Amino acid sequence: MTPEQVKAVPLAELPQLCDELRQELIAIIATTGGHIGVNLGVIELTVALYYSFDFPNDGLVWDIGHQIYIQKMITGRLPLLKEIRQNGGSPGYAYRPESEFERVTSSHAGASLSLALGASMANRLKGNTQMSIAVTGDGSLVEGSIQEALNHMAADKGRTLLIINDNEMALDKNFGGLHEHLKAITRNPEKSSNVFTELGLQYQGPVDGHDVIALVQLFKHYDKELDAPAVLHIKTIKGKGLESMADNSPVRIHWNFPFNTETLENTEGPKSPSHAGAFAQSLGELLEQDDKVFVITPATLQNTGIYKLSQQYPQRVIDVGMAEQHSITLGCGMALEGIKPIICFESTFLQRVYDQIIHDACISDIPILMVAARSGHTGLDHCTHHSLLDLSYLRIVPNLRVLYPADQEDLKACLKREAANLNGPTLILFPYGGTIDDPQQPLELDYQLSEQAAEKTLILSVGMQHLNAQKVRAQLQAQNINSRHIAVTCLSTMEPKLKALLQQVETIITLEENILDGGLGSFVFENIENGSKRPTILRYGFPKKYIEHGTRDWIYKKYHIDAESISLSVSQHFAQQQQG
Questions:
Q1: pLDDT reading at 170 higher than 70
Q2: Which of 121, 366, 407, 510 is within CB 3.0–4.6 Å of 521 for a Cys-Cys bond?
Q3: Same structural domain, 301 and 324
Q4: What is the rounded CA–CA span in Å between residue 294 and residue 298?
Q5: CA pair distance 299, 322, nearest whole angstrom
Q6: Does residue 201 sit in the same domain as residue 306?
Q7: What does pTM read for this prediction?
Q8: Which residues are paired to 445 by β-bridges?
Q9: What sign does the CA torsion over 49, 50, 52, 54 have?
Q10: CA distances from 109 to 3, 143, 384 (A)
Q11: Of 311, 329, 208, 201, which Cα lies nearest the Cα of 251?
Q12: Residue 552 shares a structural domain with residue 575
């Protein structure tokens, strides 16, 4: 289906079109998995927007790019939607290279209004009258960037329309004063003033976001009459059409594995106990043992594994909503009074708090413990959700202790050890995956080095690459190339025994799930003493680019960082050395 075909549907038949799209979407996501809930909630909104406006001549930006499945379906990309979350397939988020209808590649919250306002101002400078529209969820309104854009929007004169899609949910239920304010508006819609009108903005709502005909009539009015920035507040149901799933599980209705459309039971699921589950188990033991431990998360209770802990300890495990910057500095304030804050992130969102980490935590050397789940490549997720820069931008921060435990048992032990000895800003990273991804043989850890005869070749790995490193070592040994493998877990300051070992070997092989620039290989290079004979360093990781989604084995082979590709490369290196 194309936008022209949508516009050709008689107005009275739009509800039937929406019903058909809803059933088709359920059938597709039941097969592929994906972000089901929010997309079921914006079907009528998406159809009404495309029925009323002239995209892409008019501008439309969706906050958090996973709510564009219907946009894909009605802009000629239904076959691509059926391929989301597949190797080489379409991403399940807004992806600018794929279509002119997706103005930006995105998945993080908070950018939509600034983008729409900027486009509106540019339109005015160019003398045209196109509409510029931002659609944001009520959960995103707490983001600092949207607050900044609202402040600017109130002083602007352009044709900018902010649509607030209010379903009272982020991943979990929303939190805080703004959320309560929107609820109050809904309870008393006749009240003449609210935060938006007090800013001087035109406001209309709350409007039924599932009445497609009423939305079209409203949008036609805006298209004809709007001459200043406005806010439209609509109410939708997250997961409309699958209400029983929504009622039973906020995480499954947000994002789900493939499922049976009759029973709603998942047909796929995790293949092994998750790293997030192991972290949550250890964190639960800490909460039980130490009443000074306090846990904060910015809307990532589920992906960090701590949702059940928030139910068990509601006064000591809090979700502050999509307020990433606030969560770090809030923890710093608690630490000033002797509390042990543990701030739990999904690693992709940790990028958003770089200034708070540096300025608010590290410069003052405040003892907070940050834990970031899903570091590295996140498989069939989106390029915006991978965290392939973690080592590069985090390990360089002064006063920040950066740790990357080697496996689940090391993760549990690391959390307890660091919480017990917390005396400065500390960050623990752990990857997406489960025990199935952990090494099969015991690891030699950088902080527990044994005394043994030095080999000429040293293999160093971090994060998800320990299992591959063990395979590489075995494959090299089969070619009579002996080596020693060590798992690197401390990325801020190298363990002294490991640093001494670097000066004794001829070849160092580094494996990492990070871009090579600034990663583990760079860390090793920086720790080789000047004046000593420098070993050859063979570095294996990702190039400096945004890596697409895909299963780990597929991605590793594509970028030649799987065990077989690395072993072949190393073998060729030694063969060339012998010839030279």
A1: no
A2: 510
A3: yes
A4: 14
A5: 5
A6: no
A7: 0.94
A8: 487
A9: positive
A10: 26, 7, 11
A11: 311
A12: yes
Which pair of tokens denotes residue 370? 């940050």
Residue ending a domain, choose from 436, 457, 480? 436
CB neighbourhood size of 441 (10 A): 10
Question: Band of the pLDDT at 247, cuts 50, 70, 90?
Answer: confident
Enter the tokens of residue 482: 């002996």
End-to-end CA distance of the chain: 62
Q: Any residues with CB less than 8 A from the CB of 57 and at least 6 apart, and which?
A: 130
Number of structural domains the chain divides into: 3
> pLDDT per residue over 33-70, tens digit each?
888 889 999 999 999 999 999 999 999 999 988 899 99
Same domain as 555, residue 408: no
Nearest to 561 by CA among 424, 462, 414: 462
Question: Mutual orientation of helices 212-225 and 14-32 as an angle, nearest 10°?
Answer: 110
Structure tokens of 318? 């809090």
Instruction: Name the token pair of 36.
Output: 């089901």
Same domain as 186, residue 291: no
> Which of 416, 436, 456 is the last residue before a domain boundary?
436
* Angle value at C-alpha 121, between 116 and 124, nearest 5 degrees: 125
> Could you tell me if 279 and 411 are in contact, meaning their C-beta atoms sit under 8 angstroms apart?
yes
Given a cut of 80, whether residue 412 has pLDDT beyond it is yes
Report if residue 68 sits inside a domain.
Answer: yes
CA 368 to chain centre: 22
Which pair of structure tokens corresponds to residue 279?
A: 């972290």
- Rounded to an integer, what distance in angstroms lies between the CA atom of residue 298 and that of residue 290? 22
- Note if the bond before 56 is cis, omega within 30 degrees: yes
Asked whether residue 386 is assigned to any structural domain, the reply reads yes
pLDDT at position 454: 72
Question: Residue 457 in contact with residue 482, Cβ under 8 Å?
Answer: yes
* Cis preceding linkage at 79, omega within 30: no
Q: In which element (H, E) is residue 283 found? A: helix 275-289
- What is the Cα–Cα distance from 77 to 99, expressed in whole angstroms? 9
Residue found under tokens 């065990």: 563
Task: Mark whether 498 and 417 lie in a shared domain.
Answer: no
**Rounded to whole angstroms, how far apart are CA atoms 248 and 509?**
48
**Residue 332: which residues within 8 A CB-CB, separation 6 or more?**
341, 356, 360, 361, 364, 366, 368
Domain that holds residue 312: 280-436
The stretches of 398-550 forming alpha helices (DSSP H) are 408-420, 466-477, 496-502, 520-526
Question: Do the domain assignments include residue 260?
Answer: no
Same domain, yes or no, for 202 and 184?
yes
Per residue in 501-544, pLDDT (tens digit) is 999 999 999 999 999 999 999 999 999 988 768 899 999 999 99
What is the CA 300 to chain-centroid distance, rounded?
Answer: 10
Residue 411's CATH number: 3.40.50.970
Do residues 109 and 63 make contact, with C-beta atoms less than 8 angstroms apart? yes
* Coarse DSSP helix, strand, coil percentages of the chain, rounded to the nearest 5 percent: 45, 15, 40
Residue 273 lies in a domain: no
Judge whether residue 122 has pLDDT over 80: yes
Do 291 and 419 reside in the same domain of the chain?
A: yes
Q: What is the pLDDT of residue 179?
A: 87
Distances (CA, A) of 350 to 325, 326, 373: 9, 12, 10
